Each structure stands twice: as structure tokens, then as C-alpha cells.
Amino acid sequence: MVARVWHGRVLAGKAPAYRAFLNQRAIPDYQAVPGNISVHILERQTDEITHFVTLTFWEDMNAIRGFAGEDVEQAKYYPEDGEYLLEYEPTVVHYEVVGQA
């Protein structure tokens, strides 16, 4: 199993709308890909910035390719992200899951 981690930052005032967007658009998009095990959206506010982390779990790297394309390290963005994100981080991070309860 592989965990895929993406991070983005939005202004705190836009956080509720971005949270809704992620739940309505991004989560179903992830879940529709064969090999997706689960999707988690994490949120943390620091002063005027809200950080979002998508933590997704996949059967293997081939499943991630079905979502992200051949360059699995490249972050995937939606056209709507431009309304919210302060910048586009170019890459994501993958971790092999070596233990779970």
C-alpha cells in the first residue's frame, strides 16, 4: 500500500469554500479511480493561512498512475484551484505503508 500526500495553502477566509470544493469534487475524483483505498482531507489554520493536506491510500503505484498520470510525483490540480490556492506546489510525496493497526 502507498500513501500519497499533497499540501496546499489558502487564505483563511477562503478555507470553508475550499473545504467544500475538496469534499464535493476532489474526494469523489480520487474514489472513482480503481485501486484507491481511502481519502482523507486534513486542515490546519495558522494565523491568516489555512493548510490543507490530502492523504490518500492506494493499492500500489500503478493505481496512482491511474489518477495522476505517468509522472506520479507531479501534483494534480483542478481548474477551480486557482480561485483558492496561494501557490501550486509542483510535487507530492509518496510513502510505502509498512505498518497499520
Verbal overview:
- The two termini are 14 Å apart.
- The chain is 25% helix and 35% strand.
- It has one domain (2-96): Alpha-Beta Plaits.
- Strand 2 (36-46) and strand 3 (49-58) form a beta hairpin.
- Strands 2-3-1-4 form a 4-stranded antiparallel β-sheet.
- The protein is globular, with a radius of gyration of 14 Å.
- 17% of the residues are buried.
- By secondary structure, it is α+β, with helices and mostly antiparallel strands.
E-strand count = 4
CATH third-level topology: Alpha-Beta Plaits
| Tally of helical segments | 2
Molecular shape = globular
Gyration radius (Cα, Å) is: 14 Å
Helix percent reads 10-25%
Largest pleated sheet: 4 strands, antiparallel
Class by alpha and beta content: alpha+beta
